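Forwarding these from the shared drive since the link keeps breaking.
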Amino acid sequence: MEIYFFTIFFLGFFALLEVNLKDVKRSEVLMNTLKFLSFIILVSQMGFRWETGSDWNAYLDHYESFRNEYRWIGYPNQMELGYDFFAHIFYKYAYGYSIFLFVNALIFYLLIFKTLDFFSKYFFITLLVFYCLFMGNLGTNRQLLALALGLYSLTFLFKKQYTYYFLLIFVGYFFHATSLIFIFFFFINRNIKGHFLLALLLISIVIGYSPIPIYIFGLAGGISAEASKKAELYVKAAEKETAVLSIFGLLKRLFFLFVFYIARNKLQEKIPQYNLIFNGYFLGILFYFIFSKSLLVMISRGSLYFNAMEPILMGFLLLLVEDKKKRMILMIPLLIIAIIDFNQSIGAYKDLFDPYKGIFYNVNYRRLMY
């Protein structure tokens, strides 16, 4: 766990430096230096891993299957077309899987950093919470790339550059079909009244107890052959699901929904992007209730995109406190929450993450992958 704690420590330290800056503009060189160091640490950790993270065997087998394939479309081990093409090009011209993973990490964090630079007001606490919240998704190559593309598309949505917004979602779709969820953000970039939010919450609970989610999800499979195959697998898996959702996770979501809503009146005046991010988080709550009784896999896969709003909103909360000492005090619970998020994120498959193994670190460690 030392690699992860090293990263959390440094991101936390950078966050403390940031909230203590007297003049952010005059400290721009320092901030850019710290961002560059953070970028190097995170890209190296994600890109140089080996037998660490979920879905390792599936993605490695997919990449190595190009040894006997001279085409990137219409072969047995096919995934989404965009990812197939991406992997095929690398296998053909670079070969090494570690090079491929490194470029994956480079693209992912480049887009994430650009997105957080645009939306976040306190970059490093937002980055730290993001890192901890999504560590358990390390290894889901396609969806992480789709997530990064989707999040970056929101910067263009807010600037009303809709061509780039829809283009990035379209590109993300060819890496993971669930990225189409980002289209919902087009309709929520506005101030939604509290009574309407409450009505939507109650409606989502009612829908969650009905057969509607299974029916609609089955229809969604008609988008493409790949989506149809995924929909069929998810629906079949739903028939066998016996997992119980975390009560802590639900209570945490509802608690922060209340906090973010209470803070909305003050923060939307200071932060023009607040409503877009808050509504995205709220949409994730609706998503949670709609699928909690039928398609748990949609909560783990689909809610990924909405959960990314949480780190940004947490960073916004620091703007409520003008006094530096009080901001430092507020940082303590945020850091604790980040560490709890990290433990929960990898908790289901902790043996796949701990210890961290990379091409330069713990090389001789043998892990049973599954």
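-- next protein --
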Amino acid sequence: MSVFLLDKKKNIISNSSWTDERNLSEKLLKKIDLLLRKNKLSIKDIEKVDFECDSPYFRKNKKINFEETVSSKNKCGFTSWQIGEISAKVLNFAIDES
């Protein structure tokens, strides 16, 4: 899993990657806060938060054929993918409104 902070030109300011341990709901916001503090930034200093995981169910928000044999071993699960995407969208909404 990875989280990225992007500037106004969509360049990556900072990022963090880690292995999914089925605890994304506990880690994601802490990782974003750590990246902001590490780079001495506030949420207003970034343009976008982006999230990515190696989910076997989704690639670039596009569904793949569920009839295929899909292994999720050591990969981001469906719920983790949704938590990450929704969290990033909520934060991006807040950034746009500030």
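The radius of gyration is 14 Å. The CA atoms of residues 49 and 89 lie 8 Å apart.

- D.
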